[in-house]
Every structure is written in C-alpha cells, then in structure tokens.
Amino acid sequence: MKAIRAAELPASPVELERWYAQVPDSSNAAIPLVKAFELLKTFPDARSNRIAKIRLPERGKKWSPEEQDLVAEYVAMNAEALALAREAVQRPQCRYPIALSYGLMTDTPHLAGLKELTRIASYRAFLSAEQGRAPDWTQDIRLILQLACTLEKEPLLISQLLRHSLIELAAHTTERCLGVADAGDDLGTLIYAFEMVENTNALWLALVGERASAIPVFRLSWAEMKRIGANAEGGSPQSKPPPLAGQPNPLFWLSGLFERELNFFLQAMETNIALAALPPPASLVVTNLADQLSKLAKRRHYILSGLLLPTFWNAIIRTAGSFARIRLVRTALAIERFRAEHNRLPESLDELVPGLLPAVPADPFDGAPLRYRKLEKGYVVYSVDRDGQDDGGRERPADRTRRDETTYDIIFVVER
Questions:
Q1: CB 352 within 8 A of CB 346
Q2: Burial 264-297 (b: 16+ CB within 10 A, else e)
Q3: 376: three-class secondary structure by DSSP
C-alpha cells in the first residue's frame, strides 16, 4: 500500500474521503439537485404502479391514449423538479453529500433521484418529439446527459454504472425521438453534448475509489463482518455505526490467508486501474486477464477477490458498450445533418467525412469503423458488441433468454 500512497492515491476509505475534493457551495450543482429530488412527486393511488412500468414505445409504435395521458400528467406533476434540475446543471461542479469514509457501506441516496429525474425527462422528450417540438425534445436529451455528468468525478463504481445507464437512456430516447421527428437546428448542439460524455477517466476514478473502499474488508473482525451483513439486510443510514476500522480477526491474521489475498487483490486492481485508463479496444484485454485471475483466485481459495474482481472486469466491458452507444448516436446525428443538407441518406459513412465528422467513429470492440446499412425505410448504424462478431446489425430481442446463444450487435435504427 506504500506504492498506492506514493502515487498520491487513497489506500483507505478515510483517505478516499479526503482525496475526493470538496466543491464550493456556490459552484456545486448537487445542492439544488438535492432540492429537485425532494420535489419529485408521484400519484397517490394505483397510477403510481402503472407509471413505474411505462417505457418508451417500441420502434414504430406509440403509447396508447391512456398511457399518453398518464405520462403527460406525470410529467406536468414534476415540471418544477425538472426546471430546478435544468437550472442546477448550469453550475460548473458537482459533489453529492456522501460519506466515503464508510467504504463499502457508503450510502448513495442521490442515485435514485437522478434515475427518476432522467426517466421523467425521457418521457417529456418523447412527448415533445411526437408533437414536432424539436427544440424541446433535444433540450431534454441534453438535460439527461448533463445529469449523467454530475456523477463523472464520483469515485464509486455504482455511480459510474448509473452514469452509463443515464447516457444509454439518452441514446435510446434520441433513437426513439428521431424515429418520429427531426431535430431541427439542434443537431450540432446534440452531437457536441454526446461528445462531451465520452470520458475515459471516470471509470479510472471509480476503480481507485473501490480499491480504497475494499482494502479494510480483508482485515475485518467477525463483528465488522456481521455489521456489513446487517447493513445489507436493511440497516438505516440514521442508525449507521462508525466507519469500519478493519481490525483483523486473529485467526486470519496469524494464518496469513487474508494478507496473501489482499496482496493478490491489490496486484489485480493495479492492472484493472491501468486498463481502465485506456480507451477501448485496448482496455478489453481485461477479458483474457479475468479468466486467468478467476482461475487463480479459485485455486487459492481467495473468496473475497472472487466476489469483488468480476464486478470491476465487467465494468470495463460495460464502459466499451457505453462508448459504442455514444458513437452510434453521434454518427446517426451526423447522418441526419447530411439528410437535411442533401435531402437523401449517405451511401456510406465516408460521405460524412470531413464535413460532418472528422473521421468515421471507431467501434470500441474491434477498432474498425462503425457499420452502416440503409434500410427500406431509414438506416441502421451498429457496433459488433463484446463478441466481436459482425451480425449485420441484428438486434437483441427484449425477451432474450439466457439459453439464447445467438450473437447480436448494438444498433441504432432510424426508420424515417
């Protein structure tokens, strides 16, 4: 751990709390955003369950009149929260009020508020697109992306995974909106907004934070292990005990098992953190590393490492998928600009270069240019996804089961 501290990185939850820089109140978007979360409302009756299940319509379909009325009422009910959120994201920095000194027991109540705010913004964007109000729906897409950016520097993996989910929601909503309406004069602004969220540093920060949070777990006493279990079963933040001290259990300490496992974990995390700093596909060598280290952890009975490390490996692959969706949206928006200027679709993505794109964006999974194909009506842009196999833009079905061994691509389709 001396090497970690020599690199001026945190090696404990308490150090992580100090390392995560404070933000002046006047610049902190989190302060008004927390107020926006408090303004969120739902229906006082069974409609609250119905609205929770409503998703954007499938491509080429619409909400039923009843669903549309329910969504419109829900959006109107939360207009004040959305307005405050839009005002909040104009602030240049963000640090939510979280206590990182609690390590793996850190509470993140703001994530639920962000998830709900962005869901409502997605609803409103699609309602606006159906009514042909281009400036309104593109503003809500940008709001979703700006809310995602408030998590950019938060050194927790759960926060970065939600950040990816919000970016993917923005991409999905953009696809659905472009299917029913054009973006008017906001195409350039929207392309720039998606460019700004492709940040390779966010996952690096998260893994640095997760390493610091996890270190004490390898030295816990039985009492502290029970505390983690109790917290996982529903301990309330108000009654939360002090941060974990990481006082070693004598049996494990004398046997040296946990110390050996901690050294294994730290070496694996050093590699993970280095890979997280690389753009894909270079970062995806983690798939080979994961297989080797998983077998080694199992052979040496490193239980904690076997539980923790796969989550971090999957996060690196998940990041590549998020990058793919960002690049697909940027490419589709450039296609829409081309269509607006030439009244036709391009024959290939090369027609977008250099006027609308400096180069055809690379597929994060194989480094080749993103694929494009014109359809009978509209077009599809796609990435080969994590299997690296070009399936011609085959879309993963929503009801896909685990037994389905068919390979699919990540796609962006506009049928207009």
A1: yes
A2: bbbebbeebbebbbeebbebbebeebbeebbeeb
A3: coil
Distance CA 392, CA 372 (A): 9
Spatial separation of the C-alpha atoms in residues 341 and 338, rounded to whole Å: 5
In whole angstroms, give the CA distance from residue 277 to residue 188: 28
CB atoms within 10 A of CB 138: 25
Domain ranges of the chain: 22-94+108-197
Q: Which residue has the tokens 């977008």?
A: 352
For the CA atoms of 325, 327, 330, 333, what is the dihedral angle to 10 degrees? -60
- Model pLDDT, residue 304: 87
Closest by Cα among 323, 336, 314, 332 to 372: 332
Q: Is the pLDDT of residue 255 over 60?
A: no
In angstroms, the CA 163 to CA 118 distance is 11
C-alpha 315/C-alpha 318 separation (Å) is 5
CA distance 85 to 150: 11
CB 281 within 8 A of CB 320: yes
Cis peptide before 354 (omega within 30 of 0): yes
Bridge partners of 414? 379
CA–CA distance, 392 with 395 (Å, rounded to integer): 9
Return d(Cα 100, Cα 37) in angstroms, integer: 21
Cα 153 from Cα 164, distance rounded (Å): 13
Rounded CA separation 382/361 (Å):
11
Rounded CA separation 123/139 (Å)? 13
- Closest by CA position to 91, among listed 180, 31, 1: 31
Where does residue 57 rank: exposed (0-12), middle (13-18), buried (19+ CB within 10 A)?
A: middle
CB atoms within 10 A of CB 3: 10
φ, ψ of residue 28 in degrees (nearest 5):
-90, 110
Rounded Cα–Cα distance for residues 404 and 267 (Å)? 36
- CA-nearest of 162, 19, 29 to 100 is 19
Q: pLDDT tens for residues 183-233? A: 888 888 999 999 999 977 899 999 999 999 999 888 765 455 555 555 544
pLDDT, position 365: 98
What's the whole-number mean pLDDT along residues 107-129?
98
